[in-house]
Structures are given as structure tokens and as C-alpha cells.
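Case study.
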Amino acid sequence: MNWMGCYVAWLEFLILFPLIPALLCLVLKPGAVRDWLVRLSAAVLAFAALVVAGAVWADKSGVSIYTVEIPGLKWIQLTLEWVLYGFLFWRSLSMRGPKRVIPWLILAQLAAVTWFEAGDALPEAHSLLAIDHLSALLIAIVGVVGGLVAVYALPYMKEYQEHHHDIPDRRGVFFFLIFLFLSAMNGILLGNGLTLVLFFWELTTACSYLLIRYSGHPDAIENSDLALALNVVGGVLFTAGLGTIALHWAPATGEVLGLLNLGHGALLPAILLGAAGVVKAAQAPFHKWLLGAMVAPTPVSGLLHSSTMVKAGVFLLLRLAPIYTHTLAGGLLAGVGAASFLGCSLLAVTESNAKRVLAYSTIANLGLIVACAGVGTSEALWAGMMLLLYHALSKALLFLAVGSAEHRLGSRDIEDMEGLLLRHPLLGGVMMTGILGMFLAPFGMLVAKWKVLQAFADHAPLLAVVVAFGSAPTLFFWTKWMGKLVAVPRLRPERGGAGGGAWVLVLLAILSVAAAAAAPWISSWAVEPELLRIYGSAPGFKAPELLVLLALGAGLMALPLFFMLFPGTLPASAPYLGGANMGEGFTNSFHQVQETRLRNYYLHDVLRPRSLGAALGVVGAALLIAAIAAGGF
Amino acid sequence: MHALIGVVLYLLLAPVAGCLLAGLDRIATARMQRRQGPPLLQPYYDFRKLLSKQGAQINAFQGFYVGGFLVFTALAGGLFFAGSDLLLVIFALTVGGVLLVLAAASAGSPFAHFGAERELIQMLAYEPMLLMTAVGLYLAGGSFRVDELLGAPAAPLIVLPGVLLGFLFILTIKLRKSPFDLSASHHAHQELVRGLTVELSGPHLALVELGHWYENVLLLGILWLFLAPLGWPLAAAGTALAYLLEIVVDNSSSRLRWETTLRASWLAALVLGATNILLLHYLQHHYLSGGLL
Amino acid sequence: MSHAAKSPWVLHYDASSCNGCDIEVLACLTPVYDAERLGLINTGNPKHADVLLITGGVNEQNFEVVKTLYSQMLEPKVVVAIGACALSGGIFRDCYNIRGGVDTAIPVDVYVPGCAARPQAIIEGVAKALGILQAKADGRDLESKKAVA
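After joint prediction, the assembly is written out as follows.
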């Protein structure tokens, strides 16, 4: 099968095609035509992504690099960068407080980028595009999850506009941004030229900023500014990394893969790029922007802020991981991830807002992946890549489910989701599958506790200790949530939204279960070849007991789907309450019926979220600065 | 082959051993309180009686959760006695624990709700130390696998005193002994402190008891790993002594508040477990003298 | 042959007792009398209990509660009414709020007289109740075997 020749066309297609539906969505009026455009484009993108990824997995030969001959590409890129940075500069002028420095950072970044490209300070990148198993995995995720979320967003945003009459209907812009983002995301994954990747990196920042700002409410504006500010800092770190190459403090290369070829010699730029990845992945001390981004409409949270954009950050880290192996700088970077894992898992325990719990959990999981990248051994990287896949699937599912629950119930508070499994079996069932996938089935708890602990126990027991402490709270808050879902529901008023797009949820749930069950094959086709190429050895599913657990875990994950088909009946016997109060509600000693609520524990007194968050920021900042310093020496 | 024999023996004999252990526990407790106590087989009579009671359930899925708890706990023990990876054992055990919590949470009754929350706090308290026990045994014995740990040249006990103490600390929690019996106390059977099983009755309760027997045998097995290379008479004596110590602590202390339990457990995990592990790793890498270290 | 009588789990409920009989019941569980020799455990939960030890008379407030507790207990079950008040209302029998002894609310299997009832009498009453419990359990076994056959 000779894919090689037409291969680059597919890669270019993945990057350029989404621009077409993006622009069309801007001009088309709301209606069936635009809806079908979105659906078809999403399907085409998903299909193309799977074809490309499938070709890589079938090939097994390693990295494929491609040169792209477009005359004047350099100048086109530079012009687009001027437009992009100009736009961000203009937008950031309205920032106040410590963020006033942001416009000047953007200008500095623009100057540096112009110097890199027009001034030829960076070597020319000969092969602009590249694909290997790592990017193939993420291409598949972005294509499938991106497509599904885009389709889900159609009925969701329609209902969103109906519920929020004060928000102008800019759904055309919304879908424009979604497709533009998908294009940029593919650019990051497939790009090999360093400045090209930086361009797409900042493009995703812009898309995220505009999408968070969608509702136009004060909290959206404030949080989009925060997201922009912090992500600009990340961009500056990226640029600084390229700057070290331009200033000859590091060996000269213009390509990402070039850095890998240089190995430990390219440690300083690699750490700076890693720091940029840390910002993008919302690790400490930059975690606040992801929390704030939760004010965006749910499809945005499900797409950008859990499965794709933040994954770009860890993607870069995983890519550069071989450079970090056995270095102090890499270990410190891993420490940033581990600290984020522990801190954000504890903070998630204190939250009752479902989206914030999911945000903290996302940061925690990304922290684990960052820690794996920082350690940089074959085992750690295997764990990181597997975590990447399963987290993307389950988290997207959970965000979309929470979005539907919000429309259905009128609230995104976990306390209001009591008995969801019995009230709305479909919604409750897919939500439970998502939660089970997050921490139970193979690539939540199992990898976190098994391969990660094994990898860390060998080289960095301190990290293993932190992971041990961090995985306990994850158990706590997920089980707390599940306990609410399976409880006997009390009568509660609901908003009663229609909740369209249910089939997307079911499909995602089935995909998660299937992916969990197919883990051994996914490992050997999609992950291990990469590790064999880089390290010469690859862990996998060698142990038979693991297969037993896998089967049981996948079975357990599928059970909520089973509950959906055969929903339980209402209580057969009444709860014990001292012999009294058998009926609905609680009758007090004045024979009045009182409303009762059973709330989960949030451990605010023990965990003190504000102090904990502040401490997390300090620890993260210290470790990151130390990592950069260590990378320089 | 050994693995299969181990699993079958465990699945068949662990209930017996767990039952006798529970009986000995109650007799020892009674004698410490200067009374006669029940017959040795009393837990067995309790089990049989529960099985024969009329069943009642609060919702349609309770049986599934309880059954799941039993299956995963037995699975965890089976994996352990098959010589498998210790982290997988802990993982399976945790799954079982979560299912038990869901059984309580699904009841929708206040006592069961609080029992579920308190059980979760217990799990939050012991999980770090449990994982660090595995990491510690790995550093001392060179492998996460139980069959390889049994063949270690020297007793992990010698280089892991902190981890062993930490494990004994959380063993008190896992065996549901005072002062940490927050959710399913043996002594009081009421309301808040028995909240986990308040809404379970008859055959379901019998299955939970059975699960606890399987779990106790597994926990003592993990304790055995610390002592195994000393030879089986010493290891057995050590394990028995440790269990007796747990009973003494149980009888001589009163229940702590859950905040105190949580803080004390994490502190113990940090001071006893983490310090031991970090020290051991440091010594191993800077004094590579092979052999014991 | 079930083991109902060898593992009697008790629910101790004070209906409207002055606590005199309750103290005697609790005394049975202490080391001097040590009812755990018989396998007796005081559970506070009707769903776990086989034997309902009830003291005090039934009044308007606890009438429903006693019936609820009894209904929440699972078969096979026995009720032991302890003390004069539980038997017939005792010296409070003619009060405006007392309906009478426990048998005005639920069927009673064993009556233990006394004011307060002595621990020895209580234990003997419980032992008698266990015999009845065993008979009920066997009867259930027989019935379920008949149903199967």
C-alpha cells in the first residue's frame, strides 16, 4: 500500500479543510443548511483523521516526515502572524491590573517571531510536517471527539440561546471558531517546523479566548482575559525557547524532530517549550485559567478544555520526553505535574460545581501525564500515552453529559443530580460510564497506580509518594459523585430541557467502553511501536492478570449502559429512620413535613481550598523556575 | 500451576480462615473484658442465620453492588495468592470498596448516606499508605509481584520499619477497629457508626460478611510479606502478634472523629511511610552495597 | 436446619419505659451476665435483628413507631415484652395516653414479668424466645421446601 506519495496531501487536508466550513459558518444564516454543513464537515474530518491514523498504525515503521513546497510560505505565515498578534494585542489593551504587561509581551513576542522568520535567526525547517504514532493517536482523538462535539453543539447551542435571551445569537461565529480551532489543533499535531507550531499554538489561544468570551457576561470577559494573559505567558516561554536557539545558546535546528535528534544538548529549549506546554495544560501555577474557562458553553469545555487544546500542551511534553530522561530539569518538570496532580485532586474534593470538579480532574490527569513526560522512560511514556487517550474520551463524555444535565435539571451542581440514574436513565447511565472510565477502568486508576507508580518507584520515589497521596482524593470525589447518581431520588423541580444530541453521548460511552476493552490491542498498535522506536523496548499488557482485570473493568464500565436498558424500580422497602418517618419527607416533632437534603462531604475545614490553591501556585512556580534553571546549566 | 493452586486454595479456605479469625477476635475481645464470649464458630452461625433470613432491598441494584463487592474482594485476594502484582491487588480491592460504598449510597437513607461518606473518608485515609506499602516492598524486594517478594533474600521488615508501622496503622482502619471504625463498627451496630450496612439485610449482609473475611485474610497476607523470609513459624507468630495488637488497640481506645482520623492517617503515612521510602531509596543509590539494601 | 437460634440479634426498643427494665436489659450484655455467650448482639437496626426486646407500654406517640419497627424486621422474628408495662401497661395502664401493653400494637411471643424485670428472668425469656424463633425458622424452611417441591 503506497500511502507515502499522497500522504502529505492528507495531512495538508487535515489542517486546511476545516477552514472551509469555518468561513461558511460565518456567512450562512442559522438553519438547516448550516446545521448539515457542520455535520458533514465533522464527519469528513473524523473520517480523514481515522484514515491518516490508521495508515500510521498499519505502517508501524515510525516517523514520516514531509516537506511542503509552497512558494512564499514564509511570508504568508509571517503576515498571518502579524494579523493574529495584532488582534491579540488590540484585545489585550483593555486589560487592567498586573495584566497590563500583556500587550507588551505580545509585541515582544511578535518582534522575536519576525526576527526568527524574516531575519533568518532560526534555521529553515526542511520538513514542515511530520507524523508518528504519538501524533496519529492525537489526530484520531481530535478528529473523532472534535467531530462528535461539533455535532453535539448544534442542538446544545440552540437550547443555550433559547435559555439565555440576553446573549446575542452568534452561533455562526461559534462554529467558525470551533472549526478554526480544529484546523489549528491539527497544525500543532502535524507541524514540525518550530515557528509553524508556535503560530498554530497562538491561534488556539485566540480561539479559546474568543470562545470563553462567547456569552459576553462580566465573568466570561474576566475569565477570557485571564486565559489570554496566562496563555500569552506560555507563548512567551515558547518563544524564549526558540530564542535560545537563535541566540546560539543551544544547537541550531528549526524543527521539533531536530530537537529530538539533538538529545540532551537541546535541553534548554526543550525545557522552555515544556514550560509552554505546562501553561497550555493549565498546570500549577497556571491552573486558574482552566477553572475560569468553565464559564464557556459546555461544548467548548468538552472540546478545548479537556480533550484537545490542553492536550496540545502535554503532546509537546510527550514529544520532547526523550530529552528529559534522567535529567534534573526533567525531574523538576515532572514535579510540577505531580504537584498539580496532588493539589488539584484535593481541590476537586472541595467543589460541588460539576464543571469545576471536571476541570480540576482534568488538570490532575494532565499533571500525571506531565509527570510521565518529565521522567521520560519507556514505561512512563507508555503510561502517559494511554492516559492521554482514555482521559480524552471519558472527559469529553463527562462534559457533554454535564451539559445535558444542566439543560435538563437547570443546574450544574452535583447535589442536584441526585438519583439521576433512576430519573433519567440514559443521561445518568452515560454519566456513570464516564466516571467509571475516569477512575476505574484501565486508564484511570489502573495506569495511574500501576505503570506510573512502577515507573516512578524506580527513578523518583518522591514522585511515587506524591502520586500515592494524590490518587486517594480522586477516588473520593468520583465515588461521591457516583453515590449521588445512584441514590434514591427525591422529588425536585426540573427545567425539563429536551436534551438533544443524546446519541452523541451514547456513542462516546460505547467508544469509551470499547477502547477500555481493546486496550491490549491499542497498546500494541498505537503506542508500543513509538516506544520501540525511541527506546528500543516497550512495556505492554504482558501479564495475564491484567487482562482479567481489564475484562472486568470494561464490564463494570458497561454496566450503567445496562442499567439504562433495564432501569431499576423505586424502593421496595423503606429506609430505616428510627422507626418513624416512613413516608416522603421528614415529619418533625410538630408533625410538620420538612424538606431534607443529604449533602456530600466537601472537607472544606480539613482541606482549606484557598490556602491549598495558593500553596499549589507557589510550589508549582518554584518547581518550574527551578526546572528552567536546571535546564540552562 | 502454583498460581492456580494458590487461587483455588484461597477461594475455598479463606472464608474458613476468616470465619475462625473473626471468632478468635470476638473471644479474645471478650476475655480482655473479663467475660466468656461467644463460641468460636459464632461468626459461622451468624452467617448461616443471615442467609436464611427473608431478604429485603431498598432498590433493585443493591444486590448487584454487594455481589460486585464480594467478587472484586475475592478477586483481589485471588490475585494476591496467585502471586500477582501487588498494585493490581490493591486496585481490585479498591474497586470492591467503591461498590460497597455505592451499595450504601444507593439506599437514600440518611444513616446509609453518612455511612457511605464516612467509609469514603476511611478510604481516603488509608489509600496513600496502602500504595506506599506496595512501593516500599518494591524497593526492598525488587519487585511488585507477590511471588517474587516471597523469595526475597532478607525480610523487608528490616529495611521497612516505618512502612510496616504505617501499614499496621492503616490495618486498624481496614479491619474496622476502634479508634478508626467510622462507618461499620463491630462494637456498636447502630445508625451512624454502622451506617454502611444499615440498609443491607439478610443474605446481602451475609455476603458483606463473607467479603470481609476474604479481605481480612488478604490483609494478613500482605502483612506476611514483611515477615516471610524469616521462615513460616516466625512469620505466623509475627502476624498473630500484630493481630492481637490490633485487638488490644481496639479494646482500649474510643472512636475518633473523622477529621482526626484523616489527619492522623495522612500524617502517619507521611512520617512513617514516605520518610522510610525516601531514606531507603537514598541509601540504595548512594551506598550500592548490594545484598540487603 | 437454620441457625436462627444460635445467632439471635436483638433490637432493644424502649416504648415508654421508665428505663428501669432497659437498664436490666443492658446489664445482660455486660460481663457479669454476658448474653453474648448465646451469640446475642445488640443491633440498633430492625433490618438486622431477629429478636425485638421491647420495654414500656404503647402510647399514642409510639404506636406507629412500634408497628413500623416490627414491620421492618425480617422473618423469622420474635418479640419479647419485658416488664410489667410492656405486658399490660403496668401501673400506667389507666393513663389517658397509654393504650396498653405491647400486644396492642404487635404480636408478642414471650412475656417477661417484673418491675423491673431481673436479668436472670430476661435471659430466660430470651432463651424461650429463641426456641420459638427456631420453630418459626424450621417452619419457614419446611414451607419453602414445600413450595419448591
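Observations recorded in class. Chain B has one domain: 2-286. The mean pLDDT of chain B is 88. We will return to this complex in the next lecture.
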